[in-house]
Design brief:
This protein is mainly alpha-helical and about 150 residues long. The protein is built from 6 helices and 2 strands. A two-stranded antiparallel sheet has the order 1-2.
């Protein structure tokens, strides 16, 4: 049997890494009461913690169906990690903002995951880590740009 093209194998490997990290991430986050999909959302907010977002904009950015995003938003609002406010520009939607408690929960999750992730890179030089990050960033930017062109 012929091996698939290298580009396919790279993306497939990333998918396998995603599966492995999702399983372990959920296990490590369970004591925090924070399933990985909710961490993904808190992470999305943490990059610009003062920026308000709509469910539609979150669903578009995360490329997830709006009903699933709505469910996670409701859970995060109920936990006090996101706050809703009225959207002056569109009365049909709410604006969501990260609360101080949500930012603290995000930081606690990063702290809970960091030792495990650090072990994965324990024998990697900083240069190798920076190279991998730069290459993955380049790939992410391409996929992001391609998504916007469809």
């Amino acid at each position: 049997m012929t091996e698939p093209p290298l580009a396919f194998r790279i993306v497939n490997w990333i998918g396998i890494i995603d599966q492995l990290t999702t399983t372990e991430g959920n296990r490590l986050l369970k004591p925090l009461g924070l399933p990985l999909p909710q961490l993904v959302m808190l992470n999305h907010f943490s990059h610009r913690p003062d920026e308000a977002k709509t469910v539609t904009s979150i669903a578009r950015a995360l490329q997830q169906p709006q009903p699933g995003v709505t469910k996670n938003v409701q859970n995060l609002v109920a936990k006090g990690w996101l706050r809703e406010r009225t959207n002056g520009a569109d009365g049909r939607s709410k604006l969501l903002v990260l609360t101080p408690a949500g930012l603290a929960k995000h930081r606690a999750a990063v702290a809970a995951l960091s030792p495990w992730v650090a072990r994965a890179f324990a024998d990697w030089s900083e240069k190798d880590q920076r190279t991998l990050f730069a290459l993955l960033d380049r790939l992410k930017l391409w996929f992001d740009s391609d998504r916007d062109q469809r």
